[in-house]
Amino acid sequence: MKLILLGAPGSGKGTQAAYITAKYNLPHISTGDIFRENIKDRTPLGLKIKELIDAGKFCPDDLTVEVVKERLSKPDCTEGYLLDGFPRNIFQAESLDNFNQPDKVIEIEVDLSKIEKRITGRRSCPKCGGSYHVDFLEDKEVCPSCGDKLIIRKDDTPEVVKDRIEIYARQTQPLIDFYEKQGKLLKVDGNQPIETVFEEIVKVLSK
Ligand code: AP5
Ligand code: MG
Hints:
The chain is α/β, with parallel strands linked by helices. Helix content is 48%, strand content 14%.
């Protein structure tokens, strides 16, 4: 199964990806995680994109498409994939259709009013990619999945979040129409508790 998770910043893509990949045995491919790993490791790619990511701006399309193309050519993707954060505009979606077409696209819909609280309270694990909210963490500093030290992402400030939401509305929301026309779009209500959102995803995927 080849899946895409579509949704605004903080809609719960990373959170749901962990559940989906475990249930359906798919590799989780998050362009944001790949970029952040490159920044952490100070690779040539990481050095090139650091300022863009920290400011909540998109990385260049040609570079992003190349990263995904290469990742999808790895043996663990032959049976399928779960893409999180890619494609993010029409150019990227058309490029993906040219080299590895998705089967289904899950859009997680969330009220804008919820996003700031979710993102500014987020704690992220740089090692396993886990995403948590500070209100629900017993130990606020340590990843409950792998034990690494949790961090606050540089792009998780209220100002940058505002810009990311604006870019999402302008560049990424047109993809909803794009995939609806292809008959691939499945919508779930992301305002519900995490487990309920996941149950809904399983339900729409089984139809
Ligand atoms: P990326 O890492 O993809 O960031 P994003 O799309 O802004 O999404 P987030 O990771 O912020 O949110 P999420 O939906 O994963 O939410 P999460 O599950 O963590 O991209 C980062 C940057 O990389 C971009 O800005 C851009 O610069 C660059 N980039 C990436 N891809 C690119 C591309 N294709 N082209 C160009 N540039 C690209 O949840 C958030 C919080 O909410 C957590 O605290 C969580 O615990 C909580 N939460 C989740 N679900 C629920 C729920 N149901 N109820 C209550 N709380 C919840
Ligand atoms: Mg994410």
